[in-house]
Design goal:
Length: 113
């Protein structure tokens, strides 16, 4: 599935969306609130779901090769996080749904795909 389908399913809004973000593929979805877990995640075309709101999350996601980050749980983001996403050219979105609900919705989306 592509990132546009994911964003639509989660009713997410962009915090930073570089051109061409809609076509990025997301074949692996990883949900975590621990930097240590994110560091050991594997998979190409990975999408990170998290409620962590620090610039370190963006740098860590970039380090493991994630295609995009979606913040869940209505979290507000510090200005440094959006700046880090822009610097890494990593799409960053925010959704008001919980992480659990996001996983359920994306699971259903994967069944249809």
């Amino acid at each position: 599935m592509n990132l546009k389908q994911v964003i639509d399913a989660l009713d997410a809004s962009p915090l930073y969306a570089p051109s061409g973000w809609e076509e990025l593929e997301c074949s692996n979805i990883f949900a975590s609130d621990l930097i240590s877990d994110i560091l050991v995640s594997e998979g190409d075309e990975q999408l990170l779901l998290t409620s962590l709101t620090s610039p370190q999350v963006v740098r860590t996601a970039s380090l493991v090769g994630a295609n995009a980050i979606i913040l869940v749980h209505r979290r507000q983001t510090p200005p440094g996080m959006e700046a880090a996403a822009r610097q890494q050219e990593l799409p960053l979105f925010r959704s008001t749904v919980t992480k659990f609900e996001a996983c359920v919705r994306l699971g259903k989306l994967l069944e249809v795909s």
